[in-house]
Amino acid sequence: MELSVLNKAGEDTGRKVTLSAEIFGIEPNQHAMYLDVKQYLANQRQGTHKSKERNEVSGTTKKLKKQKGTGGARAGSMKSPVFIGGGRVFGPRPRNYSFKLNKKLKSLARLSALSSLAKDNKVALIESLSFEQPKTSEFVGVLGKLNFSNKKTLIVTAQKDTNLYLSSRNIQKVKVAEAADLNTYDLLKAETLLLTEDSLSTLEKLYSTK
């Protein structure tokens, strides 16, 4: 698959780049992507949920009523879960939701997501997307020229670009990520994947088997 290289004005530079079939041309593995997204979302959970059980709530331990002769069920404590203000039965406790996935499976999931985007013609290539200083209005202008204003756009750079990040962080539907930090969840959410030429080279170094 060939992509035309664009500039910041949204114009075709006349150059074309062939995407690697190893990265953008494999048959997407749906189950690998599902597992990788499941792990990503599980890792976002704090797991700090907690409710009090009957031994943790405050309340009197005095017997509420005599054992027999009332016509109702026996009751020995206000902390019982059947009373308002009592403890909860089998309530949530703090836990770790994370789980392990093999590196090869995670790599397959990312390659599957990249190939899926390429298959749907949702990948664009720009020669450079750097700014001399953080300028949100300038960044919005670039998005408009590229016709990405109302699309969920994932911008991939070769390395951390502070000015680009600061220019884009207040824009809805836009996320900037380094090539080495790509995850399947962000790739699948994106309607458009915007790669810089340097980031494409980095992806080829990271995922090429040759």
TrEMBL record:
One of its GO terms (molecular function) is structural constituent of ribosome. GO terms for biological process: translation. Residues 44-79 are annotated as: Disordered. GO terms for cellular component: ribonucleoprotein complex; ribosome. Pfam families: Ribosomal_L4. It comes from the Bacteria. Belongs to the universal ribosomal protein uL4 family. Part of the 50S ribosomal subunit. NCBIfam families: rplD_bact. Forms part of the polypeptide exit tunnel. HAMAP family: Ribosomal_uL4_B. This is Large ribosomal subunit protein uL4. It comes from Adhaeribacter aerolatus. The lineage of its organism: Bacteria, Pseudomonadati, Bacteroidota, Cytophagia, Cytophagales. The gene is rplD.
